[in-house]
């Protein structure tokens, strides 16, 4: 028996074509999206503006399967981290970061990551599989549910960042459908500016995203020359810095474009010299960008340590004096291992160079 189609795997276009195939009008897709993403209703029987026949058909032929929150950890700064089960063997992590004027949800796109960035804890765990669209958008749905959004209508999640586990642009099709649902007025209806895809620099994905659904972009640059970047972000060997910067330039070519966020992790004595700062300025000369300096977050078995505060400030001053907007990202949730690069989930990696690190499941 083939598995029933999960409604959470479908964006508006896909639902419209599904309804066309079963002889229904396309506005049925809009009604269904509103029930699911605006009212938080997933019981087909309660979708009162769908005809009885359609409800019976959907109940028979579709499912509404969501990932499941297993544990919640709360940091003293209010950050929440959820361990979310996506199947019997795999769990991922999702983080909610409340601030005065906004609430940011940091979501995962893969179980683990195949890219092997040397300073990232997820990378040390290896890679298991891509998440489906339902597992990606499901993180947003279950987070909204637990934060009470569907009950009181108050938007707790105002921003979404693809900065959890995985490389979003290596799971392009599923990520795109999830972005479509986040930005669709019939679904979550978030402004594209409030959705940020962070990538280690997958150039074909960057170019496709510009055409398909141009949300905010963040680039994990972390080095200003190929020699160092080849080493700490090994995907650089396939997509070297100059080509990546050209892709950034293409992405921002348009009138009202938002600047690209450049992420730069501060690693003591690795990439944090004043010379590195000046090289970074040169790299960004022609690109509308703002720089986020990220203090390195420790995890067990890492050789790196974080640059000290004076070094970070001096590095930032070079950028600012050269006319680049630069801030140091505030570390949130580090007491519950919820900060950048600390998300690990639980899974058995299919590929890993650190076999000893493979999951501690069961
Ligand atoms: N794979 C995507 C999303 C990953 S995480 C990407 O590479 O952009 C979000 C950011 O945290 C990335 O810039 C990542 O390089 C950074 N990061 C990873 N490990 C870190 C650590 N231990 N400390 C600080 N930042 C880290």
User: What is the average per-residue confidence, as pLDDT, rounded to a whole number?
Assistant: 93
- Total discrete domains: 2
CATH topology of the largest domain: TIM Barrel
What is the helix/strand order? EHHHEEEEEEHEHHEHEHEHHEHEHE
Count of individual beta strands: 14
Helix run count:
12
The Cα radius of gyration reads 21 Å
What is the CATH H-level superfamily of the largest domain? Answer: Aldolase class I
Broad shape: globular
Distance between the termini: 30 Å
Low-confidence stretches: 353-362
Give the helix/strand class: alpha/beta
Which key terms come to mind for this protein?
362 residues; alpha/beta; TIM Barrel; ten-stranded mixed beta sheet; two-stranded parallel sheet; 12 helices; 14 strands; 32% helix; disordered C terminus; binds S-adenosyl-L-homocysteine
Task: Provide the fold topology.
Layout: E1 5-6, H1 12-21, H2 27-38, H3 52-61, E2 62-63, E3 68-74, E4 80-85, E5 91-98, E6 103-106, E7 110-112, H4 121-124, E8 127-130, H5 133-146, H6 149-152, E9 159-162, H7 172-183, E10 195-199, H8 203-212, E11 216-220, H9 226-232, H10 241-251, E12 260-266, H11 274-283, E13 289-295, H12 309-321, E14 325-328
Parallel strand pairs: 1-2, 6-9, 9-10, 10-11, 11-12, 12-13, 13-14
Antiparallel strand pairs: 3-4, 4-5, 5-6, 7-8
Helix pairs in contact: 1-2, 5-7, 8-10, 11-12
Bound molecules: S-adenosyl-L-homocysteine (SAH).
